[in-house]
């Protein structure tokens, strides 16, 4: 396994480097130990079958700008309220079962989300946010109005930094509105995390964590080799995005974070 995915039988995530079984007919992926519990007949299923109610980002966005899903706002708000003194924020994993339970609970709640203050471990909240973004049908840095390679090309293929920044700003502005606004909201949040000495998560560390989550691959159906080759480019894209000035990102969100917190 190169890209960790949930087992189709038990639901637990199959981790990087582990051996797994995948059906060549229905693409069901499972632990080797779960083979005996596997259904005997194939049932065609969509590629993104890990969680219920997944979709593109716009499916979760509000109807009025800034178009940032309430789930994203609430997770970020909780992390900034009590997590900016935690070492390894977003790098240290939360308990997998709790992440799965809370993500499912938040998705089922729709717009009226339960309070995350009852989640004792802030790393679980971080895990919910990462898993939500990872489970979208299109990565945040993609969208029907943005070709797969635009962001990596703007960030890595232009040697002049000023020209690269200009190209990157242009590509971001052309993202679908929900993707653009949510990306801006997340970049401002990650900059705050990177500026917290207690977190010990600088831009390089955060780009390694969020690169594969936020940026698409060089092809629609990447091979394991392509995934490994794309990873450094994905990390560089996020690092370049985080190098853009905060005022650029604030221009899309148009309001301070406090005003985005759901009442």
TrEMBL record:
Stored Gene3D superfamilies: 3.30.60.20, Rho GTPase activation protein
All residue ranges annotated as the Rho-GAP domain in the record: 55-249
Keyword Zinc tagged: yes
Domain Phorbol-ester/DAG-type stretches: 1-42
GO cellular component, as recorded: centralspindlin complex; cleavage furrow; midbody; nucleus; spindle midzone
InterPro entries, per the entry: C1-like_sf (IPR046349), PKC_DAG/PE (IPR002219), Rho_GTPase_activation_prot (IPR008936), RhoGAP_dom (IPR000198)
GO MF term list: GTPase activator activity; metal ion binding
UniProt keyword terms in alphabetical order: Metal-binding, Zinc
Keyword presence, Hydrolase: no
Pfam families assigned: RhoGAP (PF00620)
PANTHER family according to UniProt: RAC GTPASE-ACTIVATING PROTEIN 1
Protein name: RGAP1 protein
